Structure formats: structure tokens, C-alpha cells
Amino acid sequence: MPGFWYDRIETNREVPCHIILRNVKRPVESAISPGPEPDPQLSKYLDDVILNIAAAQEDDGYLYTIRTIDPTKLHKNCGEERWSYLDHSHELYNVGHMYEAAVAHFQATGKRTLLDVAVKNADLICEVFGPGKNMGVPGHQEIEIGLVKLYRVTGDEKYLNLAQFFIDQRGNAEGHKLYGSYCQDHKPFVEQGEAVGHSVRAVYLYTGAADVAALVDNQEYIEVLEKIWQDMVYTKTYLTGGIGAEPKHEGFGPAYELPNGF
Fold first, then answer.
1. Is the pTM higher than 0.85?
2. Distance of alpha carbon 100 from its chain centroid, rounded?
3. Angle between the 157-169 and 199-216 helix axes, to the nearest 10 degrees?
4. Residue 91 and residue 122: Cα distance in Å, rounded?
5. Which of 85, 118, 84 is nearest to 101 (CA)?
6. pLDDT tens, 113-123?
7. Nearest-5° angle of CA 5, CA 6, CA 11?
């Protein structure tokens, strides 16, 4: 029925999504936008994009195109070997977004094309990372949120378990060199109590932890998140809702340091 959200979703589908289609030749965050009304042009575009994503995926499920397309011209944020530059690379960050898009696309269309790509990649990540395996964590969080969404749609608990592993492994020097407070990797998550570091990374971490806490009833996570919420909302958030006042690293600064301009 027409109404507040219906009207805005339709406006998003009819205007911004098609502007994006005309101006970029890369995946867009519009997988949830095909509803509530059919849009053949948008659906066809997404089908084509998904075919390209699937074609770029390596046989074992690995997907990080700046490495796959031309390994001789590695990006500055791409280590020489897989998983060798987790503190700054986006290997895990990018696929986390893909998991979210895959679930949204599946829920909106019923198609498994992107979901199958996501599951194949997530299965590889589960084989590589975890207790007794690669103990590294993503320098740029997000995959935790995507893994929870995969768990919700597939029911496979290994995705939920890996999301919790990545959260619990933060601040644990066993198995990886700590990245510091910039990446919220300066102390174990359950010992943290204030919003620090890069604000985007931080909020992805807090959101992923909240998702896990809701599903497994982790009271330690809930208590920590409440402390961080109080610190962030009452001492580090602008009246507009903006966060990340430190221009050097779009991050959190000291309490009440909220300059009007830079």
C-alpha cells in the first residue's frame, strides 16, 4: 500500500538506482530496491552484474578482484599473499557487503545467484579462519554483519560462530599482531567501554556484536555495548547525528571534542 516507506522505496527505485545504472559499471548497493513494484530494467542489470561477480570468483570461492584480475598489479591495500595484509586490506570487508547484498537480493527476488556466490566465499572463509587456523581479524570490520545475515537466511551456525570468533579475537595477541585502537583491536571487545578509533570500523563492529548478542543472548556483549552507546551518544555525537569528528582519521576523539569546522 502507498505510504511513508512505500513511497520512498519507490522513489529510490525509480530515480537514484537508474541514475547509478547510467553512470557506473560496477555493483551497486541496490539489491533491496527491486520491490515493491517490478522493475525489469533494474532486475536485468542486477542479473548481469551478478554474472560478472560469479565469473570473477576463483574456484575455491576466493573473491577479491583487485588481486584476481591482475595479480602483477596489486593495489596498495592488497598484500602479496591472501590474508597477508588484513589490517588494511578489504578482503574481508568487501565480501561482508556482498553477503548483505546477496541476502537482500535473495529476499527481494527469490533468486540464489548471488547468494550461492556468497555462500561459496563464506565457506572458504570458515575453512581458513577460526580457532587453530588463521587467527587474524579484519582491520576493517563488516564481515561480522554479513556473516550473521548469512546465518539468518541459511541456518548454518558456522557463519554465526565465525562472526563471534572475529569479535572475540579482537584485542587478543594470540595469533595476530594487534592493530591498535584505530581498528578497535587494542583490547578484548568485552573489556572495551568507549568508542575509539576509526568511526566507520567501530560502528560496524558494534553492529555485528549487537547482532550476535541478540542471537546467542551474550550478556557480556550487551553490557559492553551499553557502555559504548552511552559514551558515543552522549559525548561524541553531533546534534545532527554525525560521528567521527577527528578529520585525520574520520574517527572518535576525546569526549565532547566536536568542532564546528575543520
1. yes
2. 8
3. 130
4. 12
5. 118
6. 999 999 999 99
7. 95
